[in-house]
Amino acid sequence: MSEVNRAEAFERLDRVIETVIAANAERNDEQSLFPAENLHALAEAGWTRALVSPEYGGLGLDHTAFAEAAYRIGQKDASTGLVYVMHVGAAQTINLYGTHDQKLRWLKPQDGKYLLGTYSTSERASGGHWWYNFSQASRDGDDYIVNAEKSFTTSSGKADYYITQTRTPDARDQSDISFFIVDGKSPGITPGPWNALGVRGNHSGPIRYEGVKVARRDRLGEENQGKEIIYNGVSPVYLIGLGAVWEGVARGAHDAAVGHIKNSIHKDTSKRLADYQAIRQELAKPKVLIESLGPWRRELAAGLDALWFAGKPQAELLIALTEFKVHASETANLSAAAALTVTGGYGYKKGALERYFRDARAGIGMGPSNIIARDWIGKTAVGLPLELFYEGGE
User: Fold this and answer.
1) Which single residue of 108, 210, 227, 393 has CA 20 to 30 Å from 19?
2) Contact, 226 vs 218, CB < 8 A?
3) Within 10 A of 223 (CB to CB), how many other CB atoms are there?
4) What pLDDT digit, counting tens, does each position of 328-348 carry?
5) CB 198 within 8 A of CB 78
6) Would you say 35 and 16 are in contact if contact means Cβ atoms under 8 Å apart?
């Protein structure tokens, strides 16, 4: 895409964010509404197909643009940001490992209809180890039958397709994994409820697959290629997007707090809240951390683009992306907490600042949770294997 067209695409994105996403944020949170209107507006502007090539109706952009979009969306609504990241990630996984037929059917708009995709991976039995599955597909001739209970699936019951992983039929052990594109209208899919502290609109509820038939042509990649897809297809785009959304939450909370303290006046002293040194210092703490995120995001996204265009494994950046996710989510929590501190009772009331505070917490627990992520980072620092599938390494 030319720089002119790129600039025009971002102008369309900003209009959607300001006129639709920001306008719906409080209502969707209050009523726990899935942000379907927001996603439709993003699709109309082309941004749900950010990484998809023009051949399949996409914008043909890169990770740098995608992460910037996730950051801008996250400033106004973390729920929409999360749904957006999961969708673009699912589409990119098809983009990387799908066949021409799969890209035509699942990525390219048909008769003006834009399909919404998502990941459906984690299982209750393995908790935060979302890559480790106990479910196992079975064969039905050349096709497959999926029986699985997934514990958290963003857009559960709302997506048109789910990128789902299970153990391969006849798997030797937990590392023999296969991926499937599951049609959201397939019989046997039962979504569960979503009622959470924060990101209340993203509907990351459980989902059950009971005897769901998946045609051979919707197996994604080869049998037992799942580990490679996890490392190089799912994780990189997910981590850069997730970190970018929570960078946006950090910035959004900070900007909302600044707006309040600049315009709130104590009549008894004729001072704005912004005139108090203690208030300014409290805001400065997260501000320093927030400013560190943007350059790091752009550097990582550029690195992903370089690897993608060169056809090299994107897992080379796995630990750096994990570090970014940890830093972004924890900065968002610090920023939201500072915002409530400096705004006092106003920030504690139901509204934007209180929503930022609740939404910020979700990033810490999202897989890999920051506890698990720190162990990955520490093991890598001292030269130990990650042990994702086997104790003692792979």
Assistant:
1) 108
2) no
3) 16
4) 999 999 999 999 999 999 899
5) yes
6) no
